[in-house]
Amino acid sequence: MKFFIEQTDQQQSSPDVLRMIRGSVGKEFVVKHYGDKIVVTKFPAKSNRPPTAHQLKRRKLFLEAVEYAKAIIADPVKKAAWQKKIRRPNGVYNEAIKAYLRKDKLAQEESLYLSEQLLVRSFKDEEPRVEPRVVVAKKKAAAKAR
Fold this sequence. Notes:
Elements: E1 2-6, H1 16-20, E2 23-25, E3 29-34, E4 37-42, H2 53-74, H3 76-85, H4 92-125, H5 140-145
Antiparallel strand pairs: 1-4, 2-3, 3-4
Helix pairs in contact: 2-4
């Protein structure tokens, strides 16, 4: 449920009230402003579904990344070393999180690559099985004679 209210010069009076409202009104609806447009939407419904296993795994990984970044910021020597690597004045926290998550992604890719290599090697080590094929050859001449 969305209502778009576009204001023109002749319609100054009716949306003036909505122009003063910004954000949520109770838990019923939300008033959003996009340039000259005013959008009224239903308040977002949060479901009570439990998070999936993948979501829990990613949340745990991000929590570990945050702890890693906080540990770097807490140590002035490490923070200074990280600050030399990056050019932004206050980007150590974000860069540390990015590095931790990237390290995890690289570790996953390496693990996948190694498991694929082991799988390929295990098939290469096996001797190929050749089963004898029985071929029955019919002579055309015998077929024509009948």
